[in-house]
Design goal:
With about 270 residues, the protein is an all-alpha fold. The chain has a domain of about 110 residues: Serine Threonine Protein Phosphatase 5, Tetratricopeptide repeat (Alpha Horseshoe). Helix 8 packs antiparallel against helix 9.
């Protein structure tokens, strides 16, 4: 049978077997290393699991055009490493700032992955959103819930893989607004949260998320104006920073109103 196989194909298959076998051995070694680190330095082990997952997904993506079955195998391995990272987060990472760093890293890793099946990706991003909603400090909770909205609208028009769930994006941002409202009652410095959420709204409006309409953006601008007026003139550095950030967003909207490609769409926003 081997004699009937093209020598070029035989060599290609042989190289694939060697590469796949070697990669498996490396991944097993890395998995064991991370498992040993987890009880000693959970945050480092967590980061290592994420880095291995991202690298394995990249490997799966790079060989997919030629070797789909091996690509699927490595994609499954990448998923397994992410689930291991999640377990470390749940069992070992308990300090608030460390949790925020961890969730931020998870979001970045998931946005970089390109080979997961839809059901696997949805399971991972839903779990990440749940972690965000359970953070102890409300400002952190607000920021991370909004950050997780990116997972529900991943990939642009020219991206190899996209996942768009416009309604879940809106749900994340509306939840963030509710948390921001509660935070702003405790401290005027937390008005910054509304401005950060406005940034998200403008971004999703610009990229064409159908759930984010001009009425939502205009309404949030009016809300921010109301909050800033209630604060009045203050020497607070935090409020000054918030006003500067807000000014930049408004300037961007005004710029989009006069640019040919975006004038019609952004002209609907009231600011």
């Amino acid at each position: 049978m081997l004699l009937s196989v093209s020598p070029y194909l035989f060599r290609a298959l042989t190289r694939l077997f060697c590469v796949t076998f070697s990669c498996r051995k490396i991944l097993v070694f890395l998995q064991k290393t991370a498992a040993i680190l987890a009880p000693i330095n959970p945050e480092l082990a967590f980061k290592l699991y994420l880095e291995i997952a991202a690298a394995t997904d990249l490997l799966a993506y790079s060989i997919k055009p030629s070797f789909e079955s091996s690509s699927n195998e490595f994609s499954s391995i990448s998923y397994d490493f992410l689930t291991q990272a999640f377990l470390v987060y749940e069992d070992e990472i308990t300090e608030s700032s460390a949790q925020v760093r961890a969730i931020t890293s998870i979001v970045g890793t998931l946005l970089s992955c390109r080979t997961f099946e839809k059901t696997d990706y949805e399971a991972l991003i839903t779990k990440t959103a749940q972690y965000s909603a359970k953070l102890l400090k409300k400002p952190d909770q607000c920021r991370m819930v909004c950050l997780c909205s990116r997972l529900f609208y991943a990939g642009g028009k020219d991206a190899a893989n996209t996942y768009h769930n416009p309604q879940r994006v809106l749900e994340c941002l509306q939840r963030g607004l509710k948390i921001a409202d509660a935070c702003s009652r405790q401290s005027s410095a937390n008005i910054q949260l509304f401005v950060e959420i406005l940034d998200y709204y403008v971004y999703y409006y610009e990229v064409g998320n159908p759930a984010i309409t001009d009425k939502f953006v205009s309404g949030l601008i009016a809300l921010v104006n109301e909050h800033l007026q209630s604060v009045g003139v203050t020497s607070s550095a935090a409020v000054a920073e918030t006003k500067a950030h807000y000014g930049q967003i408004v300037d961007l909207i005004k710029k989009k109103k006069v640019e040919t490609e975006t004038a019609e769409r952004f002209g609907l926003i009231v600011c």
